[in-house]
Amino acid sequence: MRQRVSFSLTLPLTLLLLLCVYESRGGSVRNTEAIAPDISSTVNPQPFLPLLAPSPLTAFTNYSIPKLSGLCTLNFSAAGNMMSVTATDCWASFAPLLADVVCCPQFDATLATLIGQSSKYSRMLALNVTHAKYCLSDVEKILEGQGANENIQKICSIEPETLTGASCPVTEVDTFESTVDSSKLLGACRKVDLVNECCDQVCENAILDAARTIAAIGMPNSKGVNLLPEHSTRIDDCKNIVLRWLASNLDPSSANKVLRGLSNCKVNKGQHKNRKRKEN
Ligand SMILES: *[C@@H]1O[C@H](CO)[C@@H](O)[C@H](O)[C@H]1NC(C)=O
Ligand SMILES: *[C@@H]1O[C@H](CO)[C@@H](O)[C@H](O)[C@H]1NC(C)=O
Ligand SMILES: *[C@@H]1O[C@H](CO)[C@@H](O)[C@H](O)[C@H]1NC(C)=O
């Protein structure tokens, strides 16, 4: 059942995004139908993404309690049921197949939410390196205990550094909030309408704005933001900080929806390209 929640976000969105992409390129609906003939037959639309999910119950038939480091201060219950959704989305042998589409976006969203929720108390939007190592290992153990693939860290290329501030100069909540127009950011991202988001990227752009603003801190002049290239590691690292701040200002289930929605927009674009490439 949990699986269905994740997929229900992904599948209709793929169809709508296709429409959105073709409309914005001036393609007609006939064009779209030629590529996606099943859009018109609403009776049983064919999914564009593989539906290889295991039975959701399988993952929970033998729930083992993992041995944790005791050195991670993240509150694992503060992420609501995101951990078990992630375990299902990254279920054992299916994880590599669904990595970019389902497992890793959910894993990323969970990490952002865990750190975001803990920032309410720690006032920090990043873990230090030592802390990050223990926490990542603990998160993995909990997920494995619930049936997730044991190589999730490798599959999703997550290093402990991913949980730190990396090259982003702002990690404290107070600095973040005094630098960024946080009500504007929250306004753009509190509710992400997936179709509009994939077409117009309202929340994605607000996140990028905020990331560029904090990335510019400590740059040579006050217009440092102009010195940063469009895509830099520093901005990407700051985007992680922004996502954690967002997750701390939403309840876990809304945070999950927003974060997954944002990555679905990206995944579906990538997926579309991949499909094209495979067909050729
Ligand atoms: C659950 O897993 C443990 C360890 O792998 C095993 O010893 C136990 O018998 C399993 N329990 C069930 C109900 O399958
Ligand atoms: C952890 O989070 C849960 C759910 O939000 C909360 O009820 C609990 O008090 C938190 N525990 C600690 C130690 O902060
Ligand atoms: C890392 O963070 C933890 C928890 O906030 C703290 O106890 C520890 O001293 C920090 N370690 C370093 C090396 O800063």
UniProtKB/TrEMBL annotation:
Keywords: Signal. It comes from Prunus yedoensis var. nudiflora. This is Putative GPI-anchored protein. It comes from the Eukaryota. It holds the Pfam family SPARK. GO terms for cellular component: plasma membrane. Residues 69-222 form the SPARK domain. InterPro entries: At1g61900-like, SPARK. The keyword Signal applies. Residues 1-26 form the signal peptide.
